[in-house]
Specification:
Blueprint lengths: L6 E3 L17 E4 L4 E7 L4 E7 L8 E6 L7 E4 L4 E5 L4 E7 L2 H4 L3 E8 L4 E10 L4 E7 L3 E8 L7 E6 L2 E9 L2 E5 L2 E2 L3 E7 L6 E5 L2 E4 L2 E3 L10 H4 L2 H18 L1
Parallel strand pairs: 2-10, 11-20
Antiparallel strand pairs: 1-3, 3-8, 4-5, 4-9, 5-6, 7-8, 9-10, 11-12, 12-17, 13-14, 13-18, 14-15, 16-17, 18-19
Length: 252
């Protein structure tokens, strides 16, 4: 009988709002602090299952299961992993909490050994969920300010702003120091202001996850490089120049 291994990537929106997806995928998205789930459909030829995340846990193994013929699997998880088995559907489910600093862009491997000695492996890349991003591109028809924020930013490798596939600004973490290129670092993300071109499409990226931005029009958008006087209204500028002239006339 041919062995069937079915991995179901689960996209969790919030810890109290866990949503299952039946889509088989090479990536699995989860929000920081929420559980992520992997379902494995077992058949009678399966002898052993082990799950590992290389370079993250001792011996890399987070779950091992031996499967006696036509009986429930005997599993040994690490303390942070939980599991359950549905005898009717033959689905083994394991789950654990997603933490961005530990899991983002890490590869999770589900390895299976059949009773005839054949081995199978499935690789899943763990990614932060799109729901944790707060991103916008606000413009006033002359300038656009792109803002990318994520509550896990301080536990990430950094964040990028992209035009198409090209990175145009970024802030990367070097331990506790944030190094930025063509961007301003924020408490939970980055920001940049540049000339507005409606043909350019922006996106935000963090730890392998990307979200596309739509433009919103705001009258308050101003680039960081503008001088102080150009930020003032016309009456304010007239008043400032009048004061300068009066001071100069008194001086001379």
């Amino acid at each position: 009988m041919q062995f069937v291994l079915k991995l179901i990537a689960v996209f969790v929106i919030l810890a109290e709002n866990e949503i299952y997806s039946s889509i088989v995928s090479e990536t699995l998205e989860a929000c920081h602090g929420s559980n992520f789930y992997v379902d494995i459909l077992l058949d009678a030829t399966t002898k052993e299952i082990n799950v590992n995340i290389p370079s993250l846990y001792q011996n890399n193994i987070i779950l091992t299961c031996s499967i006696p013929f036509d009986k429930k699997p005997n599993c040994l998880p690490v303390p942070i992993v939980q599991y359950k088995f549905n005898q009717t559907s033959k689905i083994l489910t394991f789950y654990m909490k997603y933490h961005n600093k530990e899991h983002a862009e890490k590869a999770l491997f589900v390895n299976s050994t059949l009773r005839n000695g054949t081995t199978h492996s499935r690789k899943i890349i763990l990614l932060p969920c799109k729901a944790d991003f707060k991103a916008k591109a606000a413009h006033n028809n002359t300038y656009v300010t792109v803002t990318c924020e994520n509550r896990s930013f301080n536990q990430s490798s950094g964040m990028q702003i992209l035009q198409g596939d090209n990175i145009v600004s970024q802030c990367q973490w070097n331990k506790t120091t944030l190094n930025c290129i063509s961007a301003k670092g924020l408490a939970n993300g980055i920001q940049m202001t540049t000339e507005h071109d409606p043909k350019i499409k922006y996106s935000c990226g963090m730890d392998g996850q990307f979200v596309q931005l739509n433009y919103t029009e705001e009258s308050t958008v101003l680039p960081e490089s503008l001088s102080y006087s150009s930020r003032l209204s016309e009456p304010q500028q007239i008043l400032m120049f009048t004061c300068i002239l009066l001071i100069c006339s008194l001086y001379y």
